[in-house]
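Let us walk through a complete example step by step. Step one is to write down the protein sequence. Step two is to encode the small molecule, copper (II) ion, as a SMILES string so that its atoms and bonds are unambiguous. Step three, shown after the inputs, is the structure prediction itself.
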Amino acid sequence: MGTYLKSVLLIATLINLPAAWAGAGPPGHHHETFSAGEPGDAEKPARTIKMTMLEDGKKMLFKPARIEVKRGEQIRFVLQNDGTENHEFVLASVKENKKHGLVMKKNPQMEHDDPNGKRLSPFSETELLWRFTKRGEFEFACLIPGHYEAGMHGVVIVK
Ligand SMILES: [Cu+2]
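Step three: the predicted structure of the complex.
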């Protein structure tokens, strides 16, 4: 191999390397994991569950407050905020929601738009597509300070 060809290849390698690094993601980046399963795949079939968020006097609630799904099932949550305040729907383990709720008490301006959590302004609607890949009991909750305590949490049983 001639020296000229070698230097051309070397330059090509140097040009390509940063692209390869960018593809691998920034250093220290970890793929996000979720305690209640994984984000859904819009190409695959899903069962729709309508979930309403509302206030009732001093209470704040989700309707229904308990749902059952089969392991591996994909659910399209149609989330509807029928209340006069902002609300959130965050799907996780009870433990994770508790931890997360404490973080939000310290950072009340924190808002969610994640694969497992959405914030809805009053009288708005959105969707969340989720696949329940683990058996057990999980929770959906509103982690806006004071709302969980006012009753805004519910249970997902994955059989
Ligand atoms: Cu709320």
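Step four is interpretation. Residues 60, 87-88, 142, 144, 147, 152 surround copper (II) ion (CB under 6 Å).
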